[in-house]
Specification:
3 domains, Aldehyde Oxidoreductase, domain 4, alpha+beta, 28 strands, binds dioxothiomolybdenum(VI) ion
């Protein structure tokens, strides 16, 4: 009767396929008007004045500027981002003026008639310029945050005579989340109390509530947030929805009418957060027989104009930078810098895809220097149960990366294929094929003491008709939250999946189960669902209304009776950090995550040497994620993440001009289509994690980490050319192949130099 591990129909399936599901753009309200945003036109400067041009009935339009904002900040971590620019401009998409009116057509004309007169100031657009700090655009040094991880003695290990030193620099580009549904919010203000209710597309209702409370200086009863059906998030609806919510609320307050703001695709792409661009430098000491003895890593990400979530992205990127390896000496310096681009933010993986791209590419470079197979080099360095990761965390998971590697090699017919491709490639193309892999890990839940500070709460209640309703702020954004919560609750009580419903996340009705981010929903929140649901059952048993064993009907009757007699049946569960987890935030040491998911991904790639196009022909994704609660949803997470990873690796190129994304259309920001995505062969290895519901660990972000390095390593295998930055568009491949060709020619005419330094 339990549905754990079964592919039950997802809760919102019917509503979605029949078109009954209502997204923010479908909703209209009596008296509702539309809101739009007027943005800055330059990257950095001082606002001299704002002019409202002729020919527009300005008296009919609600206009909001910084002057109308009670406390001008979009609260998040550092509260450095204003809701509307006040005096200064820090990036080219910064909101300056808000307009609202019933007619969208008039609003477009009005937007064009607003002129923001800006005296330009020097701006910064690259990580290196930000680090050099000749122009300071944030704080005193452009540094949002710096973290260090130190383990062992890196300098001594690098100086050892018996090691080879391998250096490399790797870079990754920005990436647009490109959820199906663009961002949107509706704000309604209660005329009597002034309380505001905001509904829309979001990942984190309580983040938005916090932003509204801070901006208006009100308590939670005056700032209600309700999630509507949400068409994807991927991190892109983690922080920016707070901005849109406060904008809609400001316009609603001033106009006294419901206000809807929905971004079109171009505005959403250009103005909202994207994945942080990164660059990582590696210096590695490795013995000639392939033991990595020291990793010296310098990791830097571009945070854009305000700090938003950069420190969180940085910490996860930093902790994952040394990967799944047992290395005695590790030093990681991680910095998030300010530039004058729109703030970069959360995107599936939270910095780990960036630092793991560098590491997993670098491991193949080390193998090349040693003349060793990349597979063998990894095998000699995998961390094992009982050994320590970079933060000194002892691996408690029952992990065997060597065994997973063997399985992935055998599934992908690695050896046979490499042999065949070597032979075929030797005939000279024009299409060269190669195999590449990446081996990696991804932490479950908030980093360090994050879950402890969050102290998430989940509720469950019995309904008058004897069903059970799960109360959580965790959002269904297409990934399956509602479905797995219902599975877990039903199993905990011993009733049917259909006897459980999951409440709409509404800050008035549900407790704060934390944000829907960081691969935490199934493991951390799911465990609380299990526990709250069990408490409901226990209450009925204690009240003498239910005796074990019982069936679903007996439960339904007992539940209905209890609600009839007592008015309500309700239980909550709050997160308590397991005692064996300890984290030192100052020194960045200890148990960074309660558990890790582990993976080996293999890519088969063909490179057309005439067009410089790389094509992923086949893909194997093997992972250990603890117990799989819903196999179809879980596989869907992996397939989607791999497709997104392929996009990041090969196609998705954000083109910047003075801090602005200029290819803000789906016609020129290229993402993989079904024609570009190979078969993705998803394999789960399930080793239950004691603290997760039924042993489940995190799964959402993991598949973003492996594809890019596996694909770039396959390109190296195919062509002998090392791609050190993604996306590896044909232009990047052309450059890498051409310059490798000419340096090969140089090497042939020059005596070999000593040492094994590889830049
Ligand atoms: Mo996410 S990148 O944890 O929303």
């Amino acid at each position: 009767m339990s549905t754990i591990g079964q592919p039950v129909l997802r809760k919102e399936a019917h509503a979605k396929v029949t078109g009954r599901a209502r997204y923010v753009d479908d909703v209209t309200m009596p008296g509702m008007i539309h809101g739009i945003t007027v943005r800055s036109s330059c990257a950095r400067g001082r606002i001299r004045g704002i002019t409202f041009g002729p020919g527009i009935p300005w008296d009919e339009i609600t206009v909001v500027t910084a002057r109308d904002v009670p406390h001008n900040v979009v609260a998040l971590i550092n509260d450095d981002q204003p809701a509307l620019a006040d005096g200064v401009i820090n990036h080219p998409e910064e909101p300056v003026v808000l307009l609202a009116h019933p007619s969208r057509a008039l609003l477009e004309k009005a937007r064009a008639a607003v002129t923001i007169d800006v005296e330009p100031l020097p701006a910064v657009f690259t990580i290196e310029d930000a680090l050099a700090a000749r122009t300071v655009v944030w704080g005193t040094d452009n540094l949002f945050k710096e973290y260090w991880i130190r383990k062992g003695d890196v300098d001594a290990a690098l100086a050892r005579a018996d090691v080879v030193l391998v250096e490399g620099e790797y870079a990754t580009g920005a990436q647009e989340q490109l959820y199906i549904e663009p961002n949107g919010m509706i704000a309604v203000v209660d005329a009597a109390s002034g309380a505001v209710t905001v509904s829309g597309s979001m990942q984190c209702p309580y983040y938005i509530q916090k932003a509204l409370m801070k901006l208006f200086g009100v308590g939670p009863e005056h700032a209600r947030v309700v999630q509507m059906e949400t068409g994807g998030g991927f991190g892109g609806k983690e922080e920016y929805p707070s901005m849109i919510a406060v904008h809609a609320a400001l316009l609603a307050k001033k106009s006294g009418r419901p206000v809807k703001i929905v971004y079109d695709r171009a505005e959403d792409m250009a103005a909202t957060t994207k994945r942080h661009p990164s660059r990582t430098r590696h210096r590695t000491a490795v013995t000639r027989d392939g033991r990595i003895v020291a990793l010296d890593i310098d990791f830097a990400i571009d945070g854009g104009a305000y700090s938003t979530l950069s420190q969180v992205v940085l910490s996860r990127g930093c902790i994952h930078a040394a990967g799944p390896y047992d290395v005695e000496n590790v030093r990681i310096r991680a910095r998030a810098v300010a530039t004058n681009a729109p703030p970069h933010g959360a995107f599936r993986g939270f910095g780990a895809p960036q630092s793991l791209f560098a590491l997993e590419r670098h491991v193949d470079e080390i193998a090349r220097v040693l003349g060793m197979a990349p597979v063998e080099l990894r095998r000699r360095n995998f961390v094992r149960q009982g050994q320590t990761l970079a933060t000194g965390q002892v691996v408690r998971d029952d992990v065997d990366m060597g065994e997973m590697l063997d399985r992935a090699l055998s599934l992908s017919e690695w050896n046979a294929k490499r042999e065949r491709f070597t032979e075929e490639n030797a005939r000279g193309g024009p299409v060269l094929r190669g195999m590449g892999l990446a081996t990696f890990l991804h932490g479950t839940g908030f980093t360090g003491s994050g879950e402890k500070h969050l102290a998430s709460v989940v509720g469950a209640e019995g309904t008058a008709d004897g069903r059970v309703r799960v109360l959580a702020a965790s959002t269904e954004i297409g990934q399956g939250t509602s479905t797995i919560f219902a599975q877990i609750a039903a199993d905990a009580i011993g009733i049917g999946y259909d006897d459980v419903e999951v409440a709409t996340p509404d800050t008035r009705d549900v407790p704060n189960s934390g944000p829907t981010v960081a691969s935490r929903t199934c493991t951390i929140v799911g465990k609380l669902v299990e526990s709250a649901a069990s408490s409901i059952k226990a209450q009925l048993v204690t009240a003498g209304m239910l005796r074990e064993p019982y069936d679903a009907r007996a439960f339904r009757e007992a539940c209905a009776k209890y609600v009839r007699e007592h008015g309500r049946l309700r239980a909550t569960a709050e997160y308590v950090q397991p005692k064996n987890i300890s984290w030192d935030e100052e020194r960045f040491r200890g148990d960074a995550y309660g558990a890790y998911s582990w993976a080996v991904y293999v890519a088969q790639v063909a490179v057309d040497m005439r067009t410089y196009e790389a094509r992923v022909e086949d893909f194997w994704a093997l992972q250990e994620v603890g117990k799989v609660i819903h196999p179809v949803l879980a596989a869907g997470q992996i397939e989607g993440g791999v497709a997104q990873g392929i996009g990041w690796a090969l196609f998705e190129n954000v083109v910047w001009r003075d801090g602005r994304m200029i290819n803000d259309r789906m016609t020129d920001y290229i993402v993989p289509t079904s024609a570009d995505v190979p078969p993705i062969r998803v394999v789960f290895d399930e080793r239950p994690y004691a603290q997760g519901p039924h042993g489940a660990k995190g799964i959402g972000e993991l598949p973003m980490d492996g594809p890019a390095p596996a694909i770039a390593n396959a390109i190296l295998d195919a062509t002998g050319v090392s791609v050190r930055r993604v996306p590896a568009t044909p232009e990047v491949l052309f450059e890498a192949i051409e310059s490798a060709g000419s340096s090969e020619a140089r090497e042939r005419t020059r005596a070999p130099e000593g040492g094994a330094h590889v830049a």
